[in-house]
């Protein structure tokens, strides 16, 4: 798929050939790149509604998304550092945090740029629903002041738990998504 994940796919049953179509069932498992370990998830069978009026119909199970989440988590894709260059675009500094959190204002009288370290603490959970899918992610964010000598000083760390629903629709032959932060 990319530098972090690979997909292994195989037929899960013999192809069914009918006059107007071929039914081809594949089992796809996503692994961290170069690490073909057993998946911690169990494949659950699922049914697909009849879509005989479509030229091509693809269906993805929760298993595919769960193994994808596991592979990217294992590879560290959910850990990122937002450095000064990006933060300066948003103008984030210790002065901004100091106006919200009094302890930061006491520590940092001189405004310094900040660095944000975002880390997933657990494998994100992806659940398929009728018209959308839900992503639950638990992580932490560490806020660090970037001092004049380029060293960093941790200001605070906070835990974050997010639950979002994502719906996909096709409008004017374009795939459009809507994101809703549930909590």
TrEMBL record:
<dbReference type="InterPro" id="IPR032942">
    <property type="entry name" value="BPI/LBP/Plunc"/>
</dbReference>
<keyword id="KW-0732">Signal</keyword>
<dbReference type="GO" id="GO:0050829">
    <property type="term" value="P:defense response to Gram-negative bacterium"/>
</dbReference>
<keyword id="KW-0964">Secreted</keyword>
<dbReference type="InterPro" id="IPR017943">
    <property type="entry name" value="Bactericidal_perm-incr_a/b_dom"/>
</dbReference>
<keyword id="KW-0929">Antimicrobial</keyword>
<feature type="domain" description="Lipid-binding serum glycoprotein C-terminal">
    <location>
        <begin position="22"/>
        <end position="183"/>
    </location>
</feature>
<dbReference type="GO" id="GO:0045087">
    <property type="term" value="P:innate immune response"/>
</dbReference>
<keyword id="KW-0044">Antibiotic</keyword>
<comment type="function">
    <text>The cytotoxic action of BPI is limited to many species of Gram-negative bacteria; this specificity may be explained by a strong affinity of the very basic N-terminal half for the negatively charged lipopolysaccharides that are unique to the Gram-negative bacterial outer envelope.</text>
</comment>
<dbReference type="Pfam" id="PF02886">
    <property type="entry name" value="LBP_BPI_CETP_C"/>
</dbReference>
<keyword id="KW-0391">Immunity</keyword>
<keyword id="KW-1015">Disulfide bond</keyword>
<dbReference type="InterPro" id="IPR001124">
    <property type="entry name" value="Lipid-bd_serum_glycop_C"/>
</dbReference>
<keyword id="KW-0399">Innate immunity</keyword>
<protein>
    <recommendedName>
        <fullName>Bactericidal permeability-increasing protein</fullName>
    </recommendedName>
</protein>
<comment type="subunit">
    <text>Monomer. Homodimer; disulfide-linked.</text>
</comment>
<dbReference type="GO" id="GO:0008289">
    <property type="term" value="F:lipid binding"/>
</dbReference>
<keyword id="KW-0325">Glycoprotein</keyword>
<dbReference type="GO" id="GO:0005615">
    <property type="term" value="C:extracellular space"/>
</dbReference>
